Structure to design on (142 residues):
C-alpha cells in the first residue's frame, strides 16, 4: 500500500480593487505535479476576511455575471454596521466574502485537479483596495 503524502504550500496572488477575480487553476495543478500526488484532495484557503475562493467557468461573460450577482447581493452603497466602528468603506467586502467563503476542497485524480471541462478555481478580492492574497494550500493523497 502506498504511503500518504502531505504537501503544504502558499500561493500569493496580486489582485486589484474588488471585485477582482483571478484564475488559480494552473497554480494549483503545478503544486499537485510537484507533490507527486496522483489521487487525493487539495484544500485551499485564502487568508483575510475580504477574500473568497470558488469555481466558475473563467470567461469574461461569466466573470462579469458573477461580479454583478455579488454586487446585487451585498452592494457597496448600503449602510453596514461595520462602517460605524471602522469607517474604512469595506463593510460590503466582508459580507460578500463571507457569503462565498474563504476555502474550497477539490479532488485530485491522475495527478491533476478533477474539474469539469469548463470549471476553473478562482480567488476573489472583495476589498476596496488592491491586495496581495496569500492562499494556503494543503495537498493530501497517494
Amino acid at each position: 500500500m502506498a504511503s500518504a503524502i502531505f504537501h503544504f504550500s502558499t500561493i500569493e496572488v496580486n489582485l486589484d480593487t474588488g471585485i477582482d477575480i483571478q484564475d488559480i487553476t494552473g497554480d494549483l495543478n503545478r503544486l499537485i505535479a510537484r507533490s507527486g500526488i496522483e489521487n487525493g484532495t487539495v484544500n485551499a484557503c485564502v487568508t483575510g476576511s475580504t477574500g473568497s475562493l470558488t469555481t466558475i467557468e473563467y470567461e469574461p461573460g461569466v466573470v462579469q455575471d458573477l461580479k454583478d450577482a455579488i454586487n446585487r447581493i451585498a452592494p457597496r452603497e448600503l449602510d453596514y454596521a461595520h462602517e460605524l466602528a471602522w469607517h474604512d468603506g469595506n463593510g460590503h467586502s466582508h459580507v460578500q466574502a463571507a457569503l462565498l467563503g474563504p476555502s474550497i476542497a477539490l479532488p485530485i485524480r491522475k495527478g491533476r485537479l478533477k474539474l469539469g471541462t469548463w470549471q476553473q478555481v478562482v480567488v476573489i478580492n472583495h476589498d476596496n483596495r488592491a491586495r496581495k492574497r496569500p492562499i494556503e494550500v494543503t495537498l493530501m493523497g497517494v
Notes: The chain has four helices and eight strands. Residues 5-141 form a domain with the Jelly Rolls fold (CATH 2.60.120.460). The CA atoms of residues 6 and 140 lie 5 Å apart. The first strand starts at residue 5 and ends at 15.
